Amino acid sequence: MQNPNAVRENIIKQMRDIYPGIYDRVIAPIRSYVAFKEVTGGALPEMLNRARQDTDAVLTGTRTALEAIHKNKEEGERILAAMREASALSGTSKFAGIFAAQSKIHKAAAILWGTGSVVAAILIGFFLNHILTQLTDALRGGDDVKITLQVFLAKVLLLSFFSIVFYQIVKNYNANMHLYTQQAPDEQP
């Protein structure tokens, strides 16, 4: 007499070799069910009932926790809104005088730097006109070209220095105008 398990395994192997997809789709699930029935001994309905009860208990606990979280979230949002309102009222009124004083200082500094930049631009324009006029006169008059070129390059060097100074003046003007205009509209003097 042959071993029934060996015969069964041999038949399954033959079917797997002949019909490759049928084993995975049909025989394997049936085999698993039979093994499950042998292990559980018919206790499946009781296990399913216990699983349903556990699932219901978890769902009930989850609902309770979500309700508590929702209540805490609403309370937190109310507290946060009250804190924001209180800090906004005290913060702006507390520092309004400081902001106004700083705004006045920056406005006065911006006016000075703006005036300085206009004066510097005019002076640089006159200096540039003077340099070019002297260069054209020297070239027409037949002066020594080497000396004229040296004087011209020295003046161009001075002009580059003046333009760097002009750049810094304009930069300070822009910074002070920025600081003056960044104040809130109700805080500007």
Give me the secondary-structure topology.
Layout: H1 4-18, H2 20-40, H3 44-141, H4 145-181
Helix pairs in contact: 1-2, 3-4
Describe the structure.
The chain is built from 4 helices and no strands. The protein has one domain. It has 189 residues and is an all-alpha fold. The protein has helices spanning 4-18, 20-40, 44-141, 145-181. Helix 1 (4-18) packs antiparallel against helix 2 (20-40) and helix 3 packs antiparallel against helix 4 (145-181). Residues 184-189 have low confidence and may be disordered. The chain starts with a helix and ends in an 8-residue tail after the last helix. The radius of gyration is 46 Å and the shape is elongated.
Helix tally?
A: 4
Question: Helices and strands: which structural class?
Answer: mainly alpha
Query: Could you state the order of secondary-structure elements as H and E?
Result: HHHH
Taking the sheet with the most strands, its summary is: none
Instruction: Please state roughly what percent of the residues sit in beta strands, choosing from under 5%, 5-15%, 15-25%, 25-35%, 35-45% or over 45%.
Output: under 5%
Helix content: over 70%
What's the domain count?
1
- CA radius of gyration is 46 Å
The total count of strands amounts to 0
Uncertain spans, ≥5 residues at pLDDT below 50?
A: 184-189
Alpha carbon gap, first and last residue: 111 Å
Mean pLDDT: 78
